[in-house]
Design brief:
Rossmann fold, 284 residues, alpha/beta, six-stranded parallel β-sheet, 12 strands, 10 helices, six-stranded mixed β-sheet, 2 domains, single chain
Length: 284
């Protein structure tokens, strides 16, 4: 009998997610009975306060694990029994598995962004980088950026206190002065080598740009974690100016590669999953 995996994704506005198809096709290729379901808070008319009940229901239905996305990556921390070292250091969880009756939180976003960054912007200047957003995904991306050699990261968020908390966490892990909560976006962008958007701005349901177009220039590289649409307004504007860009597809795929391995206990074929993701987007 084929091994069975039942997984899902909890988040808001996730109907366009490519994650179910990525997991299920890789499961098929490996001879697994792999079912991946969307648990969309918007469709269910719920918010993150429903997380305790949703986790309990998933346990009762024998889910193998869950992916967690916006706006739940930090809210879920209080509901877990254990955290992986990565999740504890980052302070955000995007993958939950059940082991021996315990809920264990992992973070595969950090690895996912780092792999995409190495592949797409490996030679890019990285002395000073501006990051928009300090939420759950932002925390993972910020850790990845500093681990990949960014000299100084300026973090901007609508909640300045959240940006400051993330900067403090990063400085504890990577050394004093490596991160700061930004206060003057114009000045930071003028001095920056690169810009990373980790906010939901640019998603189909949240159109727009996280920074004014006037702050972009050809010498800047621009990275995005939003992947639906794959070309956000930010990337489209940046490319028109001649910027090097990195879309959110690689992070989406490589975080899924690691999550697949956590759910199934089997090594995923990363190139096969990347090819599948690209085929889904070219067929739109």
């Amino acid at each position: 009998m084929k091994p069975r995996i039942l997984a899902g994704l909890i988040g808001a506005g996730i109907q366009a997610s490519r994650t179910p198809a990525l997991h299920e096709q890789e499961g098929d290729a490996q001879g697994l009975r792999y079912l991946y379901r969307l648990i969309d808070l918007d469709q269910l008319h719920m918010d993150s306060s429903a997380l305790p009940d949703l986790l309990t229901a998933a346990e009762q239905m024998n889910f193998t694990g869950l992916n967690i996305t916006y706006p739940c990556k930090q809210v879920i921390l209080a509901l877990l029994d254990e955290l992986s070292p990565e999740a504890r250091g980052i302070g955000a969880v995007n993958t939950v598995i059940w082991r021996d009756g315990k809920r264990i939180g992992h973070n595969t976003d950090c690895l996912g962004f780092a792999e995409g960054f190495r592949r797409g912007l490996h030679e890019a200047a990285r002395q000073r980088v501006v990051q928009m957003g300090a939420g759950g995904a932002g925390a993972a991306v910020a850790h990845a950026l500093l681990a990949e050699g960014v000299g100084q990261l300026s973090i901007f968020d609508v909640d300045h206190g959240r940006a400051q908390s993330l900067a403090d966490n990063l400085n504890q892990h990577f050394g004093a002065g490596r991160a700061q909560a930004g206060s003057d976006l114009d000045s930071a962008m003028t001095a920056a080598d690169g810009l990373v958007n980790t906010t939901p701005m640019g998603m189909a349901k949240l159109p727009g740009m996280p920074v004014p177009a006037r702050l972009l220039r050809a010498a800047l590289w621009v990275a995005e974690i939003v992947y639906f649409p794959l070309e956000t307004e930010l990337l489209r504007t940046a490319r028109a100016l001649g910027c090097r860009t990195l879309d959110g597809g690689n992070m989406a795929v490589f975080q899924a590669v690691k999550a697949f391995e956590l759910f199934s206990g089997k090594k995923a074929d990363a190139q096969r999953m990347l090819d599948h993701f690209q085929s889904m987007n070219t067929s739109l």
